[in-house]
UniProtKB/TrEMBL annotation, chain A:
This is ABC transporter permease. Its main location: membrane. InterPro entries: BP-dependent_transpt_permease, MetI-like, MetI-like_sf. It is found in: Cell membrane. It comes from Actinomycetospora aurantiaca. It is a multi-pass membrane protein. Residues 104-289 form the ABC transmembrane type-1 domain. Keywords: Cell membrane, Membrane, Transmembrane, Transmembrane helix, Transport. Belongs to the binding-protein-dependent transport system permease family.
Length: 300, 312
């Protein structure tokens, strides 16, 4: 478990050459890599579980998330009700599992917006250079000066409420990070010998971009995307906790916590369980992101 | 001098640009009048004349460039416009909401520095690998927990179970403790992460070896020689940290039902009170810029190489 909490996330990304051990096949290497990291295995399992319950919630929670059983109001966690029941007698576990879909959709939209918009800005800035780069990066600097959650709030004030709007707002608020990384990568690759060679043999610029720059720049940007996935879960659930997400009956991780808030004194599990789910998911995502960033490359 | 002018120029640029970005988002992305109408109409239908009157009242009938310049000019004179909801000047609303927020933000910052520095210094000082591992794991755990949930769990434990501290409200210093701790956790984690990294680097530097060779005790080497240099990178994230704290109050003030800027922001967004939201965004940018200017001014005092390096 301590493995899960290891902080040295941004360790140096340069893969060191193999250390004398005979080269192993891909599958054997993966097996050994995972066996040494039980925390990572648990994290992957948590993520798989979350993904599956987003698509097939009934698999893990066959009940109806909005079904209220008045006789079973505010039951503490126990057999039959893992996560207890809420103030209307709805099963919290069922609501959390069914809420996964909305929360995860919002998170995916947010990451996609940030990845695509930020990636394009960074690609343009890094590839074209000159004044385009100068202007775009100034805009990015400004976006970094405004705390992301405030930027997201401003966007929600303009766009209105709802899960999709929350997701877009969170995504736009983290565009700047992606633009930065993408630009740095693009500039690094633009200066490499193989791009020079491609240009020398007369490759057209869009082919260079698609064939050489994009695939090679993708790595660090995708690592950032996984990391952003964790941050986006937190941001989306914060905003839905504040009440900007889906309207009440729909279960959503953040709004589940805020629903339980009024019963905090007597029924702690209404808040605690959805919150723990969020925390476990974010921790797992961060662990996987750390493994992708460096660890995998270094351990050969 | 050139160094200072550059920094001032950049600060002005950031403010102007964040004004422009927030204007674009809030005034162009959606029609502010639509939200005005939603409020003005109490069931009765609104005529076009009334709509136009409303637009004219808030200057929304002007062409966009004119609106932009007029509002920018007013903002430069310190006039951030009038709230759509209560008709008060935005500047005054922010000023009134600020004191309680400053209280928890200050307390949060102090705690964050204490937490962060404490964890980082202990983790790099201790000989025990086990303790270092645990301490270095704390920051990444702290940033993975949802802030609102941590706040609620602290309330559940310390207010409802143990009855030590008040759960809500802003009366008395005891009511400050839980919000400040909640606010300090993610920020302290950030400080700890930066400081652990820079301390580990500093401890491998030749001057540390020299100091050890001279017979300086381990604690003195740690605090006097290494920390002095390692603190500089930590200082540069102060602008980011302050922005973080300000943003954190949005959630923390909601969780603890405290009055303040964060609460005001949450309500302004819920009411789609466009001028007030823009005011808060600008205020956050102003704070960021001012803190960074202060850091830039302190920086050369700590590390004289900075000013020499810039003109080159």
């Amino acid at each position: 478990m301590t493995d899960l909490l290891d902080p040295r996330t941004a360790a140096d990304p340069t893969p060191t050459p193999s250390s004398g051990r005979p080269p192993t096949t891909g599958r054997a290497r993966l097996g050994r890599f995972l066996r040494r990291r039980p925390g990572l295995v648990v994290s992957i399992l948590v993520i798989v579980f979350v993904l599956v319950s987003a698509v097939f919630p009934a698999l893990f929670a066959p009940g109806d998330p909005t079904l209220a059983v008045p006789r079973q109001r505010s039951l503490p966690p126990g057999p039959g009700h893992w996560f207890g029941t809420d103030y209307l007698g709805r099963d919290v576990w069922t609501r959390v599992v069914h809420g996964t879909s909305l929360s995860l959709q919002a998170t995916l939209i947010a990451v996609a917006v940030a990845l695509v918009v930020g990636g394009l800005i960074g690609l343009l800035a890094g590839f074209v250079g000159g004044w385009v780069d100068e202007v775009l990066m100034r805009v990015v600097d400004v976006l970094l000066a405004i705390p992301p959650i405030l930027l997201a709030l401003a966007l929600i004030a303009a766009l209105g409420f709802g899960t999709t709007n929350v997701a877009i707002a969170v995504g736009v608020a983290s565009v700047a990070q992606f633009a930065r990384v993408m630009r740095a990568e693009t500039m690094r690759i633009r200066g490499t010998v193989y791009v020079e060679a491609a240009r020398a043999v007369g490759t057209r610029w869009w082919v260079t971009l698609g064939r050489h720059v994009l695939p090679n720049a993708a790595g660090p940007v995708l690592v950032l995307a996984v990391l952003e996935f964790g941050l986006a879960i937190l941001a989306v659930s914060s905003l839905s906790f504040l009440g900007y997400g889906a309207p009440p009956p729909a279960p959503e991780w953040g709004s589940l916590v805020s629903e339980g808030r009024n019963y905090l004194a007597t029924a702690w599990w209404m808040c605690a369980m959805p919150g723990l789910t969020i925390a476990a998911t974010v921790l797992s995502v961060n662990r996987v992101s750390k493994a992708l960033d460096g660890e995998w490359g270094r351990d050969r | 001098m050139i160094y200072l002018l550059r920094r001032l120029g950049f600060a002005a640029l950031v403010l102007w640009a964040s004004y422009t970005v927030s204007f674009a988002v809030l005034y162009l992305l959606a029609d502010p009048v639509a939200t005005l109408v939603a409020r003005a109409s109490d069931g009765t239908a609104i005529t076009t004349a009334e709509l136009d009157a409303l637009r004219a009242r808030y200057g929304l009938d002007q062409p966009v460039p004119v609106q932009y310049l007029e509002r920018l000019g007013a903002a430069l004179r310190g006039d951030l416009g009038t709230s759509f909801v209560n008709g008060q000047p935005v500047g005054r609303t922010i000023a009134e909401a600020l004191p309680p927020t400053l209280q928890i933000a200050t307390a949060g910052l102090v705690l964050a520095v204490v937490f962060g520095a404490g964890v980082a210094l202990t983790a790099t000082y201790t000989r025990s690998r086990w303790l270092a591992q645990v301490l270095m794991g704390l920051p990444s755990l702290a940033v993975s927990l949802p802030v609102f949930w941590v706040g609620l769990m602290l309330v559940q434990l310390f207010s409802f179970q143990l009855g030590w501290l008040p759960a809500v409200g802003a009366r008395g210093p005891a009511a400050l403790i839980l919000p400040a701790v909640t606010l300090a956790l993610p920020t302290g984690a950030l400080i700890a992460q930066v400081l652990v990294k820079s301390m580990s680097t500093a401890l491998t530097e030749p001057y540390v070896t020299t100091a050890r060779a001279k017979g300086v005790g381990p604690l003195a080497v740690h605090l006097r020689h290494a920390l002095g240099n390692a603190a500089i990178p930590a200082l540069t994230v102060l602008g980011y940290v302050t922005g973080n704290l300000l943003a954190g109050t949005v959630v923390v003030e909601t969780v603890f039902t405290r009055p303040g800027l964060g609460r005001t922001t949450v309500e302004a967004v819920a009411d789609q009170d466009v001028p007030l939201v823009q005011g808060v965004v600008l205020f956050a940018a102003l704070v960021f810029v001012l803190v960074n200017l202060a850091v830039d001014l302190i920086y050369p005092l700590l590390d004289p190489r900075v000013t020499q390096a810039v003109p080159a």
